[in-house]
Design goal:
The complex is a heterodimer of chains A (about 140) and B (about 120).
Chain A: E1 2-11, H1 17-28, H2 35-56, E2 63-71, E3 74-81, H3 96-101, H4 109-116, E4 119-125, E5 129-137
Chain B: E1 4-11, E2 14-23, H1 28-40, E3 45-56, H2 58-73, E4 77-81, H3 85-93, E5 102-103, H4 106-112
Parallel strand pairs in B: 2-3, 3-4, 4-5
Antiparallel strand pairs in B: 1-2
Helix pairs in contact in B: 1-2
The chains are: A alpha+beta (about 140), B alpha/beta (about 120).
Chain lengths: ~140, ~120
């Protein structure tokens, strides 16, 4: 059962990442999240939104929507865009030993989301609606 | 909660880059430009002081990855110090402490550059 839900829809630009973090902080302030757990949520959503701005929209002006649903024992965050999308099965999660050894750059966003959140799911419909779902239990 | 600041000072032969605020996809280019400026002068001993940094995302991490090879090829290093626990956990999550030396104090880090 959804106890509370919040939504923000704003231009997808890096200058709004701070606005998105502040939206999450104010929406989640009544929950008993530790600072560490809250930071995991902030960073994971930041990574999802940064991917949208860079990869889905290629920095072109467009909208990003974030829905937050609070239930008794979990929060679910949906990051939605209408950009070009991607095939989740073709995304390779970096092996960090090799990544660091070869001085790689970029490509860590999805790995961070997977490490910090309890569930990460995709619903990709290129050109129409792409959605990343992030879940954290508490 | 906003903003990102950089203040670079030379201490002995080391460029000490103090960063504060929020290092994300919006602000990472500022650090990138700072590193670009330092290395273009032929300075490759870089110490990043994290004391004032409250937040880092993968875009910020990417700046360090983007310069570490160049810096080490030229006999230098990017070392780090005074990182708060919150930031260290992100570095540790991805194994970054295996690639970068992280010190509790700036003095220790500067001393290590003398080795």
């Amino acid at each position: 059962m959804i106890l509370q839900s919040y939504q923000i829809k704003i231009p997808a630009k890096t200058g709004n990442l701070e606005v998105i973090r502040n939206f999450l902080i104010s929406s989640l302030q009544t929950l008993k999240f530790s600072e560490e757990e809250l930071n995991k949520v902030l960073l994971s959503v930041d990574e999802a939104c940064s991917n949208v701005i860079r990869h889905a929209y290629n920095f072109k002006e467009n909208q990003i929507k974030i829905d937050l649903k609070i239930e008794k024992n979990k929060i679910s965050i949906f990051v939605t865009d209408s950009g070009k999308g991607f095939d989740p099965s073709k995304i390779e999660t970096p092996k960090m030993d090799e990544y660091l050894k070869n001085f790689k750059v970029g490509g860590l966003g999805i790995l961070i989301m997977k490490k910090l959140m309890d569930e990460v799911e995709y619903d990709i419909r290129p050109g129409s609606q792409n959605k990343v779902k992030l879940v954290k239990y508490f | 909660m906003s903003g990102f600041k950089i203040d670079t000072k030379k201490e002995e032969s080391v460029s000490v880059v103090r960063i504060s605020g929020f290092l994300d996809a919006h602000t990472a280019h500022e650090l990138e430009a700072e590193f670009q400026g330092i290395t273009s002068k032929g300075d490759y001993k870089i110490l990043v002081n994290f004391a004032g940094l409250d937040y880092i995302s993968s875009a910020g991490l990417g700046v360090f990855m983007g310069f570490i090879e160049l810096v080490r090829e030229n006999g230098g290093d990017i070392k780090m110090c005074e990182m708060n626990v919150k930031i260290y956990k992100i570095f540790d999550l991805l194994g970054f402490p295996n690639l970068y030396e992280i010190f509790d104090t700036q003095a220790e880090a500067i001393e290590k550059f003398k080795d």
